[in-house]
């Protein structure tokens, strides 16, 4: 019997109530939002439930929404896969823009270790309890987070490129 979206939603709502919401089918993937304070319990439930069996964390990433209210300016997105039923789900947890932090999944999925480090490196999202949360791709000395929308697209001090070669002209004639 195929794992239906309604079965996933009913199990989650009956177990977590208002901590899971905004269920919807987005193109070919079932999506939902969760309360960020309860992320580890919800992810662990999805992994260990004998009917749901989302044993594989395929991706974890961050998003910056500077135009959102302060309590929803960042989001962590989890993509999970049930290999038995070939079912995928997307889980989104919004975070506060002043202090974006969420509990680590590194004790549940070892693969989340580097994904969380990358998300920290580019967005500055703190994963509470992570065993070694430090930059993974950028220099340790870097003080900004380059995937945040306030980060400038280009370095104004660069002298090694000519805007004409990138389809931009210097004069506005």
UniProtKB/TrEMBL annotation:
Give the way it sits in the membrane: Peripheral membrane protein
Against SUPFAM superfamilies, the record matches this protein to: Nqo5-like
Any idea which GO molecular function terms this record carries? NADH dehydrogenase (quinone) (non-electrogenic) activity; NADH dehydrogenase (ubiquinone) activity; quinone binding
For the protein in the UniProt heading, the enzyme class is: translocase
- Which InterPro entries does this chain map to? NADH_DH_suC, NADH_quin_OxRdtase_su_C/D-like, NADH_UbQ_OxRdtase_30kDa_su, NADH_UbQ_OxRdtase_CS
One GO cellular component term, please give it. Answer: plasma membrane
Q: Where in the cell is it found?
A: Cell membrane
Ranges for domain NADH:ubiquinone oxidoreductase 30kDa subunit: 33-154
Alphabetical keyword list: Cell membrane, Membrane, NAD, Quinone, Translocase, Transport
Pfam families annotated for this entry? Answer: Complex1_30kDa
PANTHER family membership: NADH DEHYDROGENASE [UBIQUINONE] IRON-SULFUR PROTEIN 3, MITOCHONDRIAL, NADH DEHYDROGENASE UBIQUINONE IRON-SULFUR PROTEIN 3
Its biological purpose: NDH-1 shuttles electrons from NADH, via FMN and iron-sulfur (Fe-S) centers, to quinones in the respiratory chain. The immediate electron acceptor for the enzyme in this species is believed to be a menaquinone. Couples the redox reaction to proton translocation (for every two electrons transferred, four hydrogen ions are translocated across the cytoplasmic membrane), and thus conserves the redox energy in a proton gradient.
User: Family, per the entry?
Assistant: Belongs to the complex I 30 kDa subunit family.
Q: Per its record, how is this protein called by name?
A: NADH-quinone oxidoreductase subunit C
Q: What organism is the protein native to?
A: Flavobacterium seoulense
